[in-house]
């Protein structure tokens, strides 16, 4: 088991992808929330770390402050951002306080921050107890393991959304691999854990606890007992398939339980291991949002982070590198329209795409997804453009996310 003790000494290559994704997404996020929302913004980092690594690289708190600061400088209607950084390790919390207090955006802009040392769970409880305080929330949850997670907590966070029609987004680093390994242990299925070097950090599970207690803990993290069936039916060689099924199930239930309408995820991979399979999955980044624009922006950012644009495939592949049949994406668009949009109802192309992405996973950027599949539905007369002409009187060909369409006939 890998140690977390000296973790601040080096910035692991797979962390760079995570930071790239966070940094690119937050550029879009802060720009958006500063321009359209008339309320206060809370950025919450539940496992903040020291803010700066020993090798000088910046950690998630500084990435976020800089992105918020740059968006603030550019915005017409400047809105302050409050930051909560939870970090329990004393030395890291001290370094973080120093690093943040010396940051020029913090010094010069009206940003407020608190370094909270009582732990992530207590910090979350405090935010939940003051539901009216903010209008927009972004939660970055990046623990070492998963032992402190709890499905119900995500549902509670999503309830913040009920007030004043505000927005809540979560970006979770979910150690599905750690979860599955513990689940295999608890269900005596260790033989399916591959011999590959799955060096995980200490997940924080109490291996001295009884099997019943460990079972109950996994159920609390996962939100129900579905994990038991997923693991029980996995045969030798199916560890990675089970890992994907676990995360898909977790995301699906967040939607089913009306917690978050849109969810996406990508694997974060150590490319130095298991090269033939394209690397060894370390964990998943799961994005939860109630706004289709958040889902689209994350989809496009994930595609950029996975380098999918620069390595185009002849066939559509998802974020796991698995082949996706275009007929399945086509069917998903038809199903989404059938189930969610009434005849003569208007809908933004981006919203339709977000529903499909949430169902199918990430495959293509929104624009090309809409061009291929919504283009076909327009040709078939199932959809019509609301604005058929551009301002200069030319026929509109745009497939931008805000372009509206009307449903003219059913698609199933
Ligand atoms: C993976 S690191 C976070 C890295 C950070 N997000 C970054 O990108 O720079 C996890 C951090 O969470 C801290 N931690 C562990 N348990 C915690 C808890 N219950 N509440 C808050 N912080 C905790 C650890 O000390 C560690 O610094």
Mean pLDDT metric: 89
Low-pLDDT ranges: none
- Output the number of helix runs: 14
Biggest sheet strand line-up: 3-2-1-4-5-7-6
Named CATH topology of the largest domain: Rossmann fold
Largest sheet: 7 strands, mixed
CATH class of the largest domain: Alpha Beta
**H and E string:** HEHEHHEHEHEHHHHEEHHEHHEE
CATH arch. level architecture of the largest domain: 3-Layer(aba) Sandwich
Structure ligands: S-adenosylmethionine
**DSSP, total strands:** 10
**Number of individual domains:** 2
Please summarize what this structure is.
With 412 residues, the protein is α/β, with parallel strands linked by helices. It has 14 helices and ten strands.
Task: Explain the layout of strands and helices.
Layout: H1 13-36, E1 41-45, H2 60-74, E2 81-86, H3 90-101, H4 104-108, E3 112-116, H5 120-129, E4 136-141, H6 151-159, E5 167-174, H7 176-186, H8 211-222, H9 226-233, H10 239-256, E6 262-270, E7 280-289, H11 292-305, H12 326-340, E8 346-348, H13 349-360, H14 366-379, E9 383-385, E10 404-407
Helix pairs in contact: 1-2, 1-11, 7-8, 9-10, 11-13, 12-13, 13-14
S-adenosylmethionine is lined by residues 47-49, 59-60, 86-89, 92, 119-120, 142-144, 148.
């Amino acid at each position: 088991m890998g140690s977390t003790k000296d973790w601040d000494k080096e910035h692991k290559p797979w962390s760079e992808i995570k930071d790239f994704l966070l940094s690119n997404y937050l550029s879009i996020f802060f720009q958006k929330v500063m321009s359209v929302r008339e309320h206060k913004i809370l950025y919450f980092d539940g496992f903040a770390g020291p803010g700066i690594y020993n090798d000088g690289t910046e950690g998630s708190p500084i990435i976020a402050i800089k992105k918020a600061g740059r968006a603030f400088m550019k915005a017409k209607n400047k809105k302050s951002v409050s930051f909560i950084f939870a970090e329990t390790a004393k030395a890291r919390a001290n370094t973080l306080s120093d690093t943040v207090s010396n940051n020029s955006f913090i010094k010069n802009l009206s940003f407020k921050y608190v370094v909270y040392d009582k732990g992530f769970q207590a910090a979350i409880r405090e935010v939940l107890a003051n539901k009216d305080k903010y209008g927009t929330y972004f939660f970055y949850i990046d623990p070492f393991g998963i032992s402190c997670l709890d499905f119900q907590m995500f549902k509670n966070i999503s309830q913040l959304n009920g007030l004043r029609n505000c927005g809540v987004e979560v970006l979770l680093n979910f150690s599905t691999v750690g979860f599955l390994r513990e689940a295999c242990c608890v269900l005596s299925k260790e033989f399916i854990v591959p011999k590959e070097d799955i060096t995980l950090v200490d997940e924080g599970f109490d291996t001295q606890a009884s099997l019943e207690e460990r079972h109950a803990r996994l159920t609390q993290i996962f939100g129900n007992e579905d994990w038991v069936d997923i693991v029980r039916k996995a045969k030798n060689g199916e560890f990675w398939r089970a890992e994907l099924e676990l995360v898909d199930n977790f995301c699906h239930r967040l939607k089913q339980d009306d917690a978050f309408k849109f969810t996406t995820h990508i694997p974060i991979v150590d490319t130095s291991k298991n090269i033939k399979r394209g690397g060894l999955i370390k964990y998943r980044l799961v994005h939860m949002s109630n706004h289709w624009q958040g889902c689209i922006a994350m989809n496009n950012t994930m595609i950029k982070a996975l380098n999918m644009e620069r390595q185009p495939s002849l066939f559509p592949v998802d974020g796991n590198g698995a082949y996706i049949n275009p007929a399945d994406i086509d069917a998903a668009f038809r199903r989404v329209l059938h189930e969610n949009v009434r005849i003569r109802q208007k809908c933004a192309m981006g919203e339709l795409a977000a529903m499909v992405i949430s169902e199918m996973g990430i495959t293509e950027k929104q624009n090309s997804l809409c061009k291929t599949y919504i283009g076909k539905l327009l040709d078939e007369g199932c959809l019509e453009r609301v604005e058929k002409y551009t301002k200069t009187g030319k026929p509109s060909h745009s497939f931008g996310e805000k372009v509206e369409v009307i449903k003219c006939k059913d698609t199933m």
